[in-house]
Amino acid sequence: MEEQVGAYWHRWITRTANRRFPEAAVALEDIQKTVGVLFRALGGDAGLKVEASYATDHFGHRSLLQKIAGSDKRTHSAWRDEQALLLPPVI
Predict the structure, then answer these.
(1) How many H helices and E strands in the chain?
(2) What residues make up the domain containing 23?
(3) Poorest-confidence range of 42-51, 52-61, 62-71?
(4) What is the pLDDT of residues 15-43, one digit of tens each?
(5) Are the beta carbons of 28 and 54 closer than 8 angstroms?
(6) Which residues contact 62 (CB under 8 A, 6 or more apart)?
(7) What is d(CA 1, CA 59) in angstroms, rounded to the nearest whole number?
(8) Cα separation of 29 and 51, whole Å?
(9) Which residue from 53, 76, 72 is spatially nearest to 62, judged by alpha carbons?
(10) pLDDT average, residue stretch 74-81
(11) Which end of the chain has fewer CB atoms < 10 Å from its terminal CB, N or C?
């Protein structure tokens, strides 16, 4: 019984703390070629690939609900290195 209550609590607090809107999300894989063309058209290096970034720890402000739920400890950032333009996989 205690495990079931814990599972309900975890599901509720995680959903309540969630600030994402999946119906408005755009996946990088759907627009990757277009982003690459636009990047190069605006003067970006032609030798760079457009790839999905990986999640890294961030230490920015989180709401009390996010802290209780333990969510949003990691985030996807956009950056450029020598080989690629790295963008979040979903915006």
Answers:
(1) 3, 5
(2) 2-87
(3) 62-71
(4) 777 777 888 899 999 999 999 999 999 99
(5) no
(6) 72, 73
(7) 36
(8) 9
(9) 72
(10) 86
(11) N
Alpha carbon distance 80, 34 (integer Å): 17
Residue 42, pLDDT score: 94
Phi–psi pair at 36, nearest 5 degrees? -65, -45
More confident: 71 or 80: 80
Tell me the three-class secondary structure of 21-48, residue by residue.
Answer: CHHHCCEHHHHHHHHHHHHHHCCCCCCC
- Give the count of domains, the chain: 1
Query: What is the value of pTM for the model shown?
Result: 0.70
Token readout for 69 is 């739920």
